[in-house]
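pinging the channel bc i need a second pair of eyes. not urgent but kinda urgent?? the chain im working w is below, pasted from the shared doc
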Amino acid sequence: RRMARDLDIPVTIIGCPTIREPDGLAISSRNVQLSPQDRARAPHLAAALFVAAARIEAGEPVATVLQDAIEASEAGGFEPVEYLELRAESDLAVLDSLDQPARILVAAYLGTTRLIDNVEVRYGRADG
């Protein structure tokens, strides 16, 4: 929305929640590229993001939580993890603490397939 506004692009951006498979994997055309074994492991990426979001919302240190999420993803077979970062919802700036509405963004390879996902991190939910 901000980019469209900043660049004076006459469009309306309508945000919506990520649509997910019943096991939590974000729906994507790339999912058909996954082998049956990789498809079975794929939901671990979203699970790592949801755990990380809950920990950050609870006030745990962002750097520690993100590193743990990277390690959990790698242990689940995602290599390489291209990025796993906390970003501001307003302008996608990298955040090292939760001081505004944010999202955790990730891109990681499972086999030869690059998967991307993001989850909301709610600001103001806990003391952090």
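so The chain has one domain: 21-121. and The beta strands are 78-88, 102-110, 113-121. — does that match what u expected or am i reading it wrong
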